[in-house]
């Protein structure tokens, strides 16, 4: 696992950059609209973040459903522009599996705003890399993310609640570090299978 500074350098980010990371397929069930609306509230409440933060969306097309996923990409892109985040939201597309640890490690927080998740592999991968996780309190995420210890659980579809958890993590390196350490310990309890 790369250090946060090495990961940020690998991705071409400046040391004071703040990355909110989403990893997953572009599908309405993943709740990206909630995350974009929450980021609009974060930037409204902390305007200094506009120039030094981004919502980085890592996810690509599945060959069997390109039209539906392209429609979701367009919908989220349109929403980002409508709420004034056209310069904050960045679609990275699909990235090689070997590059994901760099994204997780460089992120100040990984957000899993899904409306449903059976397990939450992205949350576990993020915790293994030391990134705090904010996730919807649904499905397997409810038991995987330990609220206040490895990250935070928020109600599904609630942008203000999500924004309330995002802001402290973007502001407080010590809090991120503490949650990240607990996340690593939690992830170590899982085996590869």
Description:
With 193 residues, the chain is α/β, with parallel strands linked by helices. It is built from eight helices and six strands. A six-stranded parallel β-sheet has the order 3-2-1-4-5-6, with helices on both faces. Helix 1 crosses helix 4, helix 2 crosses helix 7 and helix 5 packs across helix 8. The longest helix is centred in the middle third of the chain and has 17 residues. The protein starts with a helix and ends in a 6-residue tail after the last helix.
How many separate helices? 8
Percentage of residues in strands: 15-25%
Separation of termini? 19 Å
What's the total number of strands? 6
Helix content: 40-55%
* Poorly predicted sequence stretches spanning 5 or more consecutive residues: none
Rg over alpha carbons:
15 Å
Which keywords apply here?
alpha/beta; globular; 193 residues
Q: Care to give the gist of this entry?
A:
This protein has eight helices and six strands, in the order αβαβαβαβαβαβαα.
Write the layout of secondary structure elements.
Elements: H1 4-10, E1 18-23, H2 32-45, E2 53-58, H3 66-82, E3 89-93, H4 100-106, E4 109-112, H5 121-128, E5 133-136, H6 141-144, E6 151-154, H7 159-171, H8 173-187
Parallel strand pairs: 1-2, 1-4, 2-3, 4-5, 5-6
Helix pairs in contact: 1-4, 2-7, 5-8
